[in-house]
Amino acid sequence: MNKISLVFQREYLSRVKKKSFLLTTIIVPIVIVGFYIAIIMVSISGNTSTKKIAVIDEGGLFDGKIEANAKNNQLFMLINGETEKSFKSKYQKEDYNSFLYIPKLDYNDPKGIKLHSKSTVGLMDKSHIEGTIDRAIEKKRLSLSRIDPEIYKSIKSDISIDNALDSGTGEKKSVAGLAYGISFAAGFLIYFILMIYGMMVMRGVMEEKTNRIAEVIVSSVKPFQLMLGKILGIGAVGLTQFAIWIVLMGLLQSIIPMIFPEYFQQAQAGAGTIVASGPANMMATISEGLKSIPVALIVFCFVVYFIGGYLLYASLFAAVGSVVSEDQQEAQQLVFPILMPIILGFVIMVKAAGDPNSNLAVFGSIFPLTSPIVMMGRVTYGVPWWQLVISIVLLFATFLLFTWLTGKIYRTAILMYGKKVTWKEMAKWAFKKS
Amino acid sequence: MNLLEVKNLRKYFATQKAVDDVSFTVEKGTIFGLLGPNGAGKTTLLRMITGIFYPDDGEITFDGRKFDPIEDVHNIGYMPEERGLYKKMKIGEQAIYLTQLKGLSKADAIARIKEWFEKFEMQSWWNKKVEDLSKGMSQKLQFVTTVLHDPPLIILDEPFSGLDPVNSNLIKDEMFRLAKKGHTIIFSTHRMEQVEEICDKIVVINRGKKILDGKVSAIRQQYKENLFRISFDQLPVMTDSPIFQVSSSENAALIVKINEGYKTNDLLEFFIRQNASLESFNELLPSINDIFIRLVRDAPAARQFQNVTD
Prior knowledge:
The complex is a heterodimer. By secondary structure, chain A is α/β, with parallel strands linked by helices. Chain A has helices at 2-16, 19-45, 84-88, 123-144, 149-155, 176-210, 213-218, 223-259, 261-272, 278-290, 295-323, 328-354, 359-366, 371-378, 385-413, 423-431; strands at residues 51-57, 74-78, 98-102, 114-117, 163-165, 172-174. In chain A, strands 2-1-3-4 form a four-stranded mixed sheet, covered by helices on one side. In chain A, strands 5-6 form a two-stranded antiparallel sheet. Chain B is an alpha/beta fold.
């Protein structure tokens, strides 16, 4: 036990003391929060630039009057006495961003509308312009069919439904989009962790083998102790990194409202009213939706599946690292079968985040090789407790079994050089009685 | 008193009988040489003695009791043939780590490391990384980390490979000093001249089997060919005699082989009768190198793979 802790300490300290660790640990949250700030900056600055669009309306679609689309920062100016050809060379000089040419239209089959601009018009801008034209054509069609626009308005329906969750205490509003986002993010994070830290374990084992350190260490430590110490040490590095990230992100995020005070006041005001515009509305929805997400359960599951999934896969990666000698390519070949279930888990998780109770999602969240990723994709929607228990028990039981088997492969392989090891041999070592 | 006894040790790999029924004993406080051509099974044998490999068959007795790889960790210092150290780790930290793994406390480890670093003039290395060291330097470091915990049994696999004569001597002297202090040293090599100089006792293995075992002086006696070197102030005219055969001659010296049934006195008498003035006379014992080559000559240069059925 004492020896495992010595190995653990070395693995942990030698990684945490590295400059690259410090760098990634500090830079990642700064980059994420930087993105966040950038998004806010863009959404704020978007309010200020108004696009001027010239319109040549030959058929009188707009009846000489176009409403300014203030919400989308578009200002339409009707131009009279110009043709498409003659105005094409002028509109830029006259400080228009683009100009819209509308010929005489057959309202049942409108054709030939053209938007001229120097550079490609943004997708959003284009769809807003199209919306404006659509409404004008609709109006014309209504009058052609002799329908009062007011009556039409009263007939038209546009509803959005609230999904009330009846499980647990009281009724909560569910926000499907938010649950999906959190599910996906949590599943992706686990996927990412398994890949990054699993590979780190493999490289660590390979380093010990190729530098021939293993033989020195193994003369004073049992191979299994060395393997376990390494796996636990690197796992602790991962936990440390996440802890620092969470603290740093929390700190940085609490700074943001100080940088953009007016923006967040808007958001708080928006939470109170039903109709609010733009991003402030989004913030309100999120804060409302967060109440329906079982945060404590997610954090608990994240930690459990992080530890279980990492331990399970780390032992497999360690076994592969011990089998490889020198050749990087050989490592890639051997590691592929381990990456497959991780990738499979990711694919199932993407589906599960959208459809959490499908058979595939339930299976994936219980099958131990995919459960760490898939269960994170499901847990935001609420999972029956018995599924959670089976999944976790299976995960840790598999971890113990795999560590026992891979430990035997590791013990044999760590001192073998030169020879390429086949799967058959590895299986033989794993199941050999010691 | 024997510190180590190895009895009928056997280790088969899939395609090799790496060690096949080898037995020997190592006395306490002696330097013991394990010799053999490349691929003879030296490293496998040493790995079993250090507890890295479990033998398929046979017994290892350490200090009068059954050898236990886990309990005896602190009793053994092992330097493998392929040197291995963490390249990116600082040398001081690395030495502390390796010594702690042998069961020493950190304070003890540091004190001993300082002592040894001073002796080997390595104090300035403490904060350097292993990747900054030359091959010879890292070899020295590896030797120090092997003996730091003061183990009764020190096992060195090819300790001199890659060392210059100065450092080679440094380690050789240290081996003598450790042996005098009561440590037992087993080392493997294929450089025979070192063996005569250093070892009290040797075992030669070839193709996994022991082919020679004994004290260096006894072995040389055992393999002597009755060759003698006689030097004169002037070569004698007559050298035909039933007593001996001339195997070669130099300026004023003859190397002769005494025929069976005759003694050295007969030889000397023969020359004295001729009034030849003898300057020196000594027996030529075969070097371990000669014996070794003679013993393994019949073996193919490269070990062939074979099928092991057991």
